[in-house]
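Fill-in record for Menaquinone reductase, molybdopterin-binding-like subunit.
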Amino acid sequence: MKIDRRSFLSFVIGGAAGTALTPLPWKLTDDLSIWTQMWPWTPVPQDGEVSYVNSVCTLCPAGCGISVRKVDDRAVKIEGMAGYPGSNGNACILGMAGLQLLYSPTRVKTPLKRVGNRGEGKWKAISWDDAISEVAGKLGELRKDQSSAVAGIVGSDRGTVPQLLKRLLTAYGSPNFMCSPSMDDSYALTLKLMHGVSASAGFDIENANFVLSFGSGIIEGWGSSVRMFKANSALKDKKGKMVQIEPRLSNTAAKADQWVPVRPGTETVFALGLAYVIIQESLYNKDFVENYTAEFDAFRQMLDAYSPDKVAEITGIDAEAITTLAKAFAGASNPLAVCGRGQGTTPGSLHEFMAVHALNALVGNINKKGGVWAVPAPDYIQWPDPELDDIAQKGIQTARADGAGSEKYPHTASLLNRLPEVINSAAQSPVQALLVSGANPLYALPDSKAVKKAFDKIPFIVSFSSQMDETAQYADIILPNHAYLERYQDVPTPTGLQTPLTGLSKPVLDPLFDTKHTGDAIIMIAKALEGNIAAAFPWDNYEVCLSETLGDKWDALVENGFVAQDFQEPGWEGAFTTPSGKFEFVSKACAAESDKPVFSSVTPEGDEKTYPLILIPYDSMRLSNGFIGNPPFLTKTVEDTVLKGNDIVVEINPATAKDRLFSLNDGAPAMLSTPRGEVRVRVHLSDGIMPGFMAMARGLGHTAYDDYLAGKGANFNELIGPAEDPVSGLDSAWGIRAKLTNVPI
């Protein structure tokens, strides 16, 4: 089955896309006076001197340039910074609403020590000296015989602040530095196995003329959201083509030239079916394949199981449509295939990433204009290795708590998704102290109940959050960071950008409260621990560390906000450092026990008889689902087909709703149950979701923050558990079996 824009229900497409792209100011103008009366803390400055400060937004991985308008000492408006690579004068609605995070009443204003039970919300304000002394004392005592029992969690390992925490753990004697997983992890591993390089994936979408997207929310916040909005518009202006492959009519699918409603979980199979046609029809780039690739014959033989007829049975898309799409993709001058579901905040199946990337290789669009580039990380962090004492040397040799780098998962650097189960299955938690910065694992990790149970077993938790999020609520000590508009921070290459870049987030105003930069807090902890640990941190403070680290880039960064690294297009010659020295279609890391290369799919958890439906998540530009919770203005823009009152709304096909098992009307309340949990929902009937499936938005269901966000909807992570990818160990779950039952209105 193939459904394109012309043949699909026009009112659904127009309504979904038009509503989703309505500008924020129009949405808020309707009742602006009411909002300002409701929120006395909304910035309403007196007249004064107007000035602008350029900075970089750090609320998501996009790293957009922003310009903040000030009246005297008050920040009053955020807009895009002209000339900044990627965003160039534009900002997303989360970025524009960021002032509400700066002036939010849920800011943590001073160091706090828990005095009640965990999660009870009882705190005692303490001084910074006492807070640092408390943390250093706990860590010092633990180090005597359990240095490897300390762990750190960060949102990303890129930049000086995460690397300072990693350095602290290394000098202390712990290997347990972990990052929140995302599609960046899967793409990095794909490039490692297929290219043989340590790099991030950059997508030259501006110069592509045929974009094949496997569930990537190009206009839902995937990669750099502002950049993708602009690139998508430019693609249409130059008569390029966008094809969206996913089971739900997302905004991206609605705006695409063609929507291919593939069955969830079969995207890998669909990609291999396209590859089969490209090879059988000899449509591949013969120069690249014959001269710069290895394992092509093994890949071609493996594809015998993925003929269009066989793929049609699995995916629900007819064989002719598969063949036609494969020919159109291979026939374009600059075709580009991408994946990473929704906003890309979950890693997904490594086989899916490799299968999709193989399409780019077949058409020879790697390290070329309009294709996928292997982008090296900025190399400005060149600190000398810390000198390790006997305790540290012994500690860092121990196995990681999450299993990353083990014999089972040798290629993966971090497996935070495995940590809760590891802790819960142990008599005593292998993590006795946990430091969390720039992440909110109690909200963002799947199976929230299991995560909470694991955190209950960790005796000492420290949060560096500037907001009272779910993880901060569960901490023993909070060392509050400056808000993102109050601090310096280096911002390495934004997700998906095809050229290396370093941005600098600069303070727009002085800190409003008794907070400290997380970099300063880490340096203070290190110095309090003394010895080799203190010696590993020679800087007086974080700003000195940052300026010295950036070296001759510092002045240009302060003046311009970014520095673009000299980057020669790598091309094909010498670009691959795999064992063969070539691009490898098939990696031995993906071999089964029989040593035969395979591609596998993940089966959703649950018994089909008990749970006859399948629940899948979706992302929206109006809902932040990372470590930052929605500001109130952003929540105001959420449609009532997503959130109705305090009830979250699930999409379900009318044919499914009329089934004798459900008999549900539009707007009806129901109880949604999965093997991991249950929640009250309301039903929205939509032809944009395949029969037998349900879709729920991510980013709601917070128990923290303020009354404008807490208690609204449900957290999708409470309803789904992780599924370990057999090669990477990363979470590859894409959905879970579920059921609906009627409840009284």
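KEY FINDING: The chain is about 30% helix and 20% strand.
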